Amino acid sequence: MTTRSSAARLVPALLLALASTACSASSSKHDAARPPAAVGSEMPTGLATSAVPSGTPTSAALGQYLKRTMPIQAYEVTSRQSSEISAAYATLVGRCLARFGFTDMPKPRINQHDIDSVRSRYGPGDDVMAEHGYHFRQDEMGPPDSPSEGGAPPTESAAQIAVENGSGPKVVNGQQVPDGGCAEDAKRQVTADGAVYGEPDLVGSIDAASYTRSQSDQRVLAVFAKWSDCMKQRGYTYVSPVAALEDPKWKTGGSADPAEIATAQADLACKRQYNVIDVWFAVDSAMQQAAIEQNATQLNAIKDGIAKELKIAADVLGAGGTG
């Protein structure tokens, strides 16, 4: 399996390999297929198009990306880790509330299902996803976890809420309520010694900006144009996979109808025919890697903060579990 670090190192090499195999589309077709520019004027350092290596990956090299991982994921928490952190936070809030006599709290549950966020990054990318049309995240999520082992959260009294958010009396049952209440006290504990709580803005910005900027890269636009022609031959008119993914028709209803599934299956077939996901992934990843290298100091501090946060969560959950 390709690791995060090795995937990041391979991306520039793959990009340099595809110049000879990428067939260029006409400039007018590029313009027609060009998606909107990245939202907002503030871009993380290193995401300029000039920072991305030239060329595109060859089909032979792309076999190394059977399990794709974005470079920025090295600075994120997984869905399971996020669940552990949330459980630790809820546990600390519950312990604090218990000191004031509020003990009717559900037991936090850790989500055992780790979501592969890259799998759906570029729309339907495999047959199972396409069978769900553009509602494929239902397949990704798996069966829903219950919110807690104790069932639905009980209704909180006004007195409990006041202790939780610190909006009420400063002393309750003879004990001092922490500044900001139990919620703020729990947050202070999970962010002690430089630990990070939640996804830092820089990480999310790099992830979102590379995805958007990659859609305006000429190598990606070239395969988008081929994909669009392929879809037109199958009876569908979309300028890019993003346009198909974001078609308002798919926003209604909780599941895909036959027309949506057929569209997603055609989408996937055209992506496979022209290596759309492989090219897009390589450009997207290279943009992220350039941004990571130019924001290394901040990102390494974030990674250290996440490691501390996970250690705190493990200690909290290990000290009496989530009860």
Notable characteristics:
two-stranded antiparallel sheet; mainly alpha; 323 residues
Number of strands: 2
Percent of residues in helices comes to 40-55%
Mean pLDDT: 78
Which word captures the global form? elongated
Q: Please give the oligomerization state of what you see.
A: single chain
Major sheet: 2 strands, antiparallel
Strand content: under 5%
Based on helices, strands and strand pairing, what is the structural class?
mainly alpha
Termini separation: 37 Å
Count of runs of 4 or more consecutive helical residues: 13
**What value does the Rg take, in angstroms?**
24 Å
**Poorly predicted spans:** 1-43, 48-54, 56-66, 144-152
> How are strands sequenced across the largest beta sheet?
1-2
Element pattern in H and E: HHHHHHEEHHHHHHH
Description:
35% of the residues are buried. The protein has 13 helices and two strands. It is mostly helical. The N terminus is likely disordered. 50% of the residues lie in helices and 1% in strands. Helix 1 packs across helix 12, helix 3 packs across helix 7 and helix 8 crosses helix 12.
Sum this structure up briefly.
The chain contains 13 helices and 2 strands, in the order H-H-H-H-H-H-E-E-H-H-H-H-H-H-H. The protein is mostly helical. Residues 1-43, 48-54, 56-66 and 144-152 have low confidence and may be disordered.
List the SSEs and their pairings.
Elements: H1 4-16, H2 27-33, H3 79-98, H4 127-130, H5 137-141, H6 158-165, E1 171-172, E2 175-176, H7 181-190, H8 201-214, H9 218-233, H10 241-245, H11 258-273, H12 276-294, H13 296-318
Antiparallel strand pairs: 1-2
Helix pairs in contact: 1-12, 3-7, 3-13, 6-7, 8-12, 9-11, 9-12
